[in-house]
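User: For documentation purposes, I need each entry recorded in a consistent format: the amino acid sequence on its own, followed directly by the corresponding structure tokens. There are two entries in this batch. Please keep commentary to a minimum and don't merge the entries.

Assistant: Recorded as requested. Entry 1:
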Amino acid sequence: MKVLITGGAGFIGSHTADALVERGDDVVLLDNLSKPVHLKGIPSYLHPKAKLIVGDVRDPKVFLDALKGVDAVVHLAAYQDYLPDFSTFFSVNSVGTALLYELIVANKLPIKRVVVASSQAVNGEGLYLCDTHGLTAPNSRPVEQLERGDWEMKCPECGKNVTWQWTPESFSHPENQYALSKESQEKMALSFGRKYDIPSVAMRYSIVQGPRQSFYNAYSGACRIFALHYYFKKAPTIYEDGQMRRDFVNYRDVVKANLRALDEDRMVGNQFNVGGGKPYSVQEFDRIVAKISGCADLEPNIPGVFRFGDTRNSCSDISKLQNLGWSPEHSVEESVTAYVDWLHSQGDVGDIFEYAEKNMRSLNVIRETKRQTNSK
């Protein structure tokens, strides 16, 4: 089988390419090598048997050339950031996906499978349980509440604190530009796939972790932030009170899910959560990174600042994919160890996290509570 991976030079794409090559598939990578993710150009980790095409998924000619002779597509190319350049999210993520299906239909390409990468961000805050009103789906917390240092989710009906729930694929409540663009990708994949008989699957990834995550992408998450801080023997800052819940998934489990989506006919026409199945507080996760980094005695800073737009809790129900035989096999500790080992193998790691934090502050993403402001 010949497989095109868009965003193939990236974190998940390159690992997926490795697995496909190793099982005997021909692999083509399409990637625009955009900065800051690929700050230093073509990464050295790309498999030598995978053909790289440098180009943009919004360019019809480049995209069509990459699609010729291909049996399947793993569509991972996406724009991720905290920047408020809303149109770019839809230009890259939504338009790129629409163009993929447009080219397949217009040119009658015999594509046997399309796997589209979505995100846990589509869930928004997900589902919660109120003792009085039952299952509920609250909106994002108001800024005024966060500025008071009141972090917990509230019932929309009675205002009482609610308890997070594992959230299935049947639910979506996107509340930021990235999440909205990813939901549009899911809907296009399933709708166009069904209408034009293009077998398609949407994969809603939780927080994926492992080596090759860009050091330069502020969106790449807590593992990068914490590991870089401990690399330089500095205490990281944890937002809110550190009790936000997340589920993390190992890159090797995600690769296995992607390959299953290419091969398993029962997955066609559906979206699937791909998560770790175990919740961690951010503070718990920090302690794991600190221990593996050899900095268990270095405590994080928890000053009560918050990051505008963050969800309080985000944990995905993976039972739908588990019912088809997939389950996460690798622990968070394995993910962090692989990332830290990879970080320490780099010879020119710069102290970039201070730049990232300054950049988010300049965009008014990181904010202080009223108590902090009044105490100055």
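Entry 2:
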Amino acid sequence: MATEVDYYEVLELSRGCDGSQIKKAYRRLALKYHPDRNKGDKEAEEKFKLINEAYQVLSDENKRSIYDRYGKAGLEGHGGFGGAGMSMDDLGAIFESVFGSAFGGGFNSRGSNEDRYPLDIESEVSLKFSEAVFGVKKDITYSYKKVCEVCDGTGDKDKNPRVCSECGGKGEVYYRQGFMTFAQTCQRCGGEGVEVANPCNECRGEGYIEVTEKTTVDIPAGIDHGNRMRVSGKGNISKSGRRGDLYLLVLTEDDEHFIRDGDNIYIELPLFFTQAILGAEVEVPTLKGSKSVNIPQGVKDKEQFILKGEGIANVHSGRKGDLIVQVRIVYPTKLNSEQKEALIKLAESFGVESKPHESKFEGVLNRVKNWFKG
């Protein structure tokens, strides 16, 4: 008997995950196994269907509740799952409900010059910490597709591809199992609906060529790791001349000293133990220079001080976050004889106060002694 698929395992989640984690996992895996990124890969296509099936159930609170109690069997009759029988149009509807129309056009299984590839594309841009904080003009090199002019986008040297003999031009083949009908992408033509008898030498039968282009993009101040930017009119080009958009996934480098958390930033302040005892006024680096921070006597290790408005300007509102200064008390690693003697004298000058463990453990020691009496 086949083992039942666990939807949580499919999306690589734990059972206690929340809605935002489910959506985040779906976005990551759906992009990874998207048919347009895995041309002709049957295993990736099946994985993509399973990911959508899992998301369809776990993103719906009612269906998820039933599934958690009774498994897939409990969803029968509730419209809970149907990954095996889903058409690519059905999967496309789920995909676009999460991503919007940014990747539109990639799910239409029928082949034509217009939908041979999606018009919108995605690339990555890496930024230094300072570039993300303050904004920068960045040169981006990326590749886009356009219709092959030699074969007019047909992929055929004679510009006359023939109708696929397997699917009859539909791009899908259908088969029945019991009373249900299933559809899958035609393996012979890859869902294009046509067969190329004489592949074009220029595009090798693909119907399109890839072009490398460089463009300069204005990166706004405050953009964060994982954000996406839309660059209008820099995507793939269709046969009719329509051009999609370029979406940039922002990746930011870590800074040596500052740690970012949204619009707030953290910095660690090393304090010598004598400064922590006596208190001190210290200069702390900020994004635009330095600020004086008054450290009170007896400050504790990992204690935090907040400098309001010294963080990062929000990329949408412009409102600035805070700079959080966290203390790290530093102790000497080596002592010479003179320093050691001075510290002993200092400790002795505090008398009983310098030995708090004696008063704390006195009662404990007496209790322990009583255990062995009698």
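Summary note for entry 2:
Residues 78-90, 100-114 have pLDDT under 50 and may be disordered.
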